[in-house]
Amino acid sequence: MARQQSDREDLLREATALVERAELKVAGFDEPIIVGFRRGGAASFFFGSDPVYQFSAAGELRRAFVAGCLVKAEQGRLVRLSRERSAAAVTLVRDELDAREQAELLAAAEAKLRRLAAALAAGGFKLIGQVPADSDIVERVRQWFAARPGEISVARVPNVR
Description:
The chain is an alpha+beta fold. It has 3 helices and 9 strands, in the order αββββββββαβα. It starts with a helix and ends in a 14-residue tail after the last helix.
């Protein structure tokens, strides 16, 4: 538990690519949530250390960290990268999610994001900290939710550009 708290504090303080970021304690979630925005408007949501969902400025899912694996967008599909360790080496294994796996991952992400949006709309949260201190990041997150398309779509590439 202490290790996870340290990780969250480091993320809030040191995630400088997220020029605006906030840590929230949200009703209905066990761990604090960190939400941040890159300079171009790309949003990231950290539900504890796992899952993590990262979006493009257009609101498309570009990367995720789910069940201990990195998931990235490639040509509008999701690809899972997992590490396999042996005595001699660590190998990165690439596995394209099939249609069912992709649909399940997107549905789980959508459910978490909708729960977060509902809690923010109802005021069911406590702001633990934010960078910069004088921003209204919660309002920015609310606006992001209001502007996003109905269902999560997958980006063509995993990087922000």
